[in-house]
Amino acid sequence: MTTINISNMECNGCVANAQKALQGLPGLENVEIDLQKGNAVLSGEFDLDEAISRLTDAGYPAEIAD
């Protein structure tokens, strides 16, 4: 599992948009986005850079959590 921080999420609609941005990412098995924490936990064998790029392009800048 990989945790990434996501900026600019303010409502459940933002969560839905972030999930939609990640939809279809090859190798991504599960996504759990937490609006309150402003992060997402992703699991599977996927391209992390691509996941971050998709979120950022959708208006939700993302980075790997420390």
Structure description:
With 66 residues, the protein is an alpha+beta fold. The protein has one domain (2-64): 2-Layer Sandwich (Alpha-Beta Plaits), CATH 3.30.70.100. Helix content is 32%, strand content 32%. The protein has helices at 12-22, 48-57, and strands at residues 2-6, 28-34, 39-44, 62-64. It has a 4-stranded antiparallel sheet with strand order 2-3-1-4, with helices on one face. The longest helix is centred in the N-terminal third of the chain and has 11 residues, at 12-22.
How helical, in percent, are the residues? 25-40%
**Could you say which structural class the secondary elements and strand pairing correspond to?**
alpha+beta
Assigned CATH class: Alpha Beta
Order of helices and strands: EHEEHE
Mean pLDDT: 95
Measured on Cα atoms, how large is the radius of gyration?
Answer: 10 Å
Query: How are the strands of the largest sheet arranged?
Result: 2-3-1-4
Instruction: Let me know the number of strands.
Output: 4
Q: Kindly report how far apart the N and C termini lie.
A: 13 Å
Number of structural units classed as domains: 1
Put simply, the count of helices is 2
Q: Please indicate the percent range of residues in DSSP E strands (runs of 2 or more).
A: 25-35%
What is the 3D form? globular
Largest sheet: 4 strands, antiparallel
- CATH topology, anyone? Alpha-Beta Plaits
Indicate the low-confidence ranges by residue numbers: none
Which architecture per CATH? 2-Layer Sandwich
